[in-house]
Amino acid sequence: MTMLSNLAPIPELYVSYDSAQKLKVEAADLKSWDLTPRQICDLELLMNGGFNPLKGFLSEEDYNGVVENMRLADGTLWPMPITLDVSEDFAASLEVGEDIALRDQEGVILGTMTISDRWTPNKAREAEKVFGADDDAHPAVNYLHNTAGPIYLGGPITGIQQPVHYDFRARRDTPNELRAFFRKVGWRRVVAFQTRNPLHRAHQELTFRAAKEAQANLLIHPVVGMTKPGDVDHFTRVRCYEAVLDKYPAATTGMSLLNLAMRMAGPREAVWHGLIRANHGCTHFIVGRDHAGPGKNSAGEDFYGPYDAQDLFREHQDEIGIEMVDFKHMVYVQERAQYEPNDEIADKDDVTILNISGTELRRRLQEGLEIPEWFSFPEVVTELRKTRPPRSKQGFTVFFTGFSGSGKSTIANALMVKLMEMGGRPVTLLDGDIVRKNLSSELGFSKEHRDLNIRRIGYVASEITKNGGIAICAPIAPYATTRRAVREDIEAFGAFVEVHVATSIEECERRDRKGLYKLAREGKIKEFTGISDPYDVPENPELSVETENVEVDNCAHQVLLKLESMGLVSA
Ligand code: PPS
């Protein structure tokens, strides 16, 4: 099959500038939906034609077709549900047929939608059919159940303006801008490379080979919208990509950033990515092993087979309108000092094959170890080291949890002083009592208020961690789910060290330093943790300390040893 790009403009959903100005004024009377970050990404690609032929968020009929057999109601291939999920309250306030304003998080109007459909989706079914399993270990299934609203709205969009991006503006292109660029420079065959990771030498080799094989120019087309939680942030990645771009022969290769919110849906995602690239005027698309793979399921197995994405893509290639280029697994052959496709090395037993896995690379970055030049480009390694300094230079959070009077504050204070004595990073103590005097002064002890209190502490600790400091938290934090949520927030930026101060309730009551247990027993304090309110004992804390017959100094020392063993402080 010979693919030549169709570089005629594709339809967008934007109205003219004058109409947009008028609509903006009129929209003041409409009910507004404040879009989530993922919905903003989806809306941008709906409006600029990246999701062509969609004309809006899916109707119920289209949604059912997409979920069940990857097709819109009219039979057109479309693998991913692009839906507007909202709250019950908002959905209930609307009539079908009504127009709503779609606004970004600062209230700027981006478009309007005429509501044609409103329904309660069967999310378990969506998870099974689209993502392959109703398992929260899949990031998109987790999003579906725990972040997305319960009601879906569908209907056509009228585009008013693009979401504003302040970063890398010159590197972002709509499908029509890319098409115009290809037309201008005479690129008739273009192979696109999708990525959400930094590029190293192996990627540079394989993409260049793919372009040669397809006799095409190369477009590095990284996703900068939303990728897999825990990925390297896009600011760092784009600086890395810019460094790698210089390594290709001049004028063969370009780069454009795609504000896509990935779902990590493997085979379906590959087909979706292909359709999006076809809309951007590309003729070829590289599909790799485990394309857009979400990692392991809750049983520790892969969600999809390694070549499922290639198989599904091949099956639908003609309809997608873009030709697949198989990804070659490139490895470094030491004796020949070059990268070669793994399956083309005839003398495997006589040569030394080198490879560094993603996990090994992260370990080396964490520990500040050498990353060899055969593996990556020095400029890329320098960028990565800036955002991933060794653990002993990163911020982290120590989160004490335990009953009132268990000794949390005393140990936390001792730890703070020891860390300050060591120096190097600022230390902040967020003690339960102190937080309740300041940050959470209006809160009581209901589950809702305790959760709010812990989420606030978690938010402050995550900011401290992000900025390279040490946060020591010492609340009771009785609920495991809330502790887990805080852990997730913080682990995006650094380590979360949960320390269970495991003093028994009997011992805490015996000590009764503040006389609160007595009052709780007398019923004068209600909802008292351990007496009349629950405490979920941590199942897998990084450390559990006993305080009965143990000096405070020794407890703090145990924490310090743990921090040392995790590489967070050096002896
Ligand atoms: S929580 O559950 O994490 O929000 O609690 P926290 O912010 O750590 O606040 C606990 C301190 O408040 C005092 N106190 C109570 N604790 C538990 N239950 C009830 N009902 C209650 N009422 C007041 C108590 O002194 C706790 O301090 P610590 O430092 O834990 O002894």
TrEMBL record:
PANTHER family assigned: SULFATE ADENYLYLTRANSFERASE (PTHR42700)
Protein name: Adenylyl-sulfate kinase
GO BP annotations listed: hydrogen sulfide biosynthetic process; sulfate assimilation via adenylyl sulfate reduction; sulfate assimilation, phosphoadenylyl sulfate reduction by phosphoadenylyl-sulfate reductase (thioredoxin)
Domain APS kinase residue range list: 394-545
Record EC number: 2.7.1.25
Single annotated GO MF: adenylylsulfate kinase activity
Family: Belongs to the APS kinase family.
Coiled-coil spans in chain: none
Catalytic activity: adenosine 5'-phosphosulfate + ATP = 3'-phosphoadenylyl sulfate + ADP + H(+); sulfate + ATP + H(+) = adenosine 5'-phosphosulfate + diphosphate
Boundaries of every ATP-sulfurylase PUA-like domain copy: 11-161
Binding-site positions, ATP: 402-409
SUPFAM superfamilies in alphabetical order: Nucleotidylyl transferase, P-loop containing nucleoside triphosphate hydrolases, PUA domain-like
Enzyme category, top tier: transferase
Residue span(s) of domain Sulphate adenylyltransferase catalytic: 172-386
HAMAP family in alphabetical order: Adenylyl_sulf_kinase (MF_00065)
Biological role stated in the UniProt entry: Catalyzes the synthesis of activated sulfate.
Classification via Pfam families: APS_kinase (PF01583), ATP-sulfurylase (PF01747), PUA_2 (PF14306)
GO cellular component terms attached to this protein's record: cytoplasm
Keywords: ATP-binding, Kinase, Nucleotide-binding, Nucleotidyltransferase, Phosphoprotein, Transferase
Pathway: Sulfur metabolism; hydrogen sulfide biosynthesis; sulfite from sulfate: step 2/3
